[in-house]
Amino acid sequence: MQSKDVFRYYNDKNIIEFKNKYTDRLSHLRNPSFVRNKEALPSELLFSVVRPFSKNNKQNILIQGDSWAQAARVSQSFLKETSEKNHIGLVNAGISSYSPSPMTIQLDILRDDFDIHPSIIIGIIDQTDIGDELFRYTYQHENKTGKLRSLLPKGTTQSEKTQIMERKSNFNSSDFAIVKFLNLAILHIKSRYLKRKLPKLNQDAKTILSPLINGLDSPSAKYFFIRLNRYIETVFSDSEIKKLILVTHPHRNHLVGNNNHKSFKGEVGTLVNQVVSKSSYKKKIIHIDFLKSEKSTFLIKNLETVFLKNDPFSHLTNKMFSGYYYPYIFSKIKELYY
After folding, report:
1. Where exactly are the structural domains of the chain?
2. Would the pTM count as exceeding 0.90?
């Protein structure tokens, strides 16, 4: 990451205001590289416009999800060509580690604050979303009607990441040294108070992957069902929505064979199928399940080249994202915008 990425991220007034407004609710936004150029709007930390939404478009498509959705960035040429050729609006709101809970809040923000009302949502549900919901986004704040408001416990106002961001902004400011010192003292007092209220969560790779490695017990599965179903309910709360496309893809250790001791026991696609089958919106939901598709044979044959080497989270290579993953997804929904 280049220094100018970080400098603008921590010093641009508009970017700082944007982060302060949304980080509390969403836990985190995109990294500094998304706003490295002076022309980049602060909103690039939350979403990117491939082709603008319009009532004149055949469809307006929103992509949501974690790093697999954020990887639409490396498929920019394909997505731009597809959206222009087929006259569809396309917005990519993928952000690393965004599972159904942050996706739910993000969707509310996109609708309420940016007037983004898609007709189709592609919701990418990664295998790690199970662990993220169980261990990363354990504590949440809902309002009196049950609507998800924040990924922080009730009574807290800032995440630890926001506190760090405030310290860096103070350090890089042009204020006099004595002003910086007083600001730092205030931030330190506030930080000590908040640390007593913010629960410590174990978010290391082994913990996040544990539901895949060991499988899920019934309470954990039910916990994930509730979170995913809440996202689905939020998607269809807007009358503009015609279809929700849920996408799941296996990790490397789902493909090594059951006799291999590294073979994963838990698999998110199975859970998604169970949730969709019981949803009142099931006729409006399409599940693209790569593990159960004709692509599974291709994946097994090319196991050593499809995924990034030595990546515990089994991300695809950039070549596979741009030449295989996104083209396949859009090929399965082309009848919706042709």
Report:
1. 47-153+205-297, 165-197
2. no
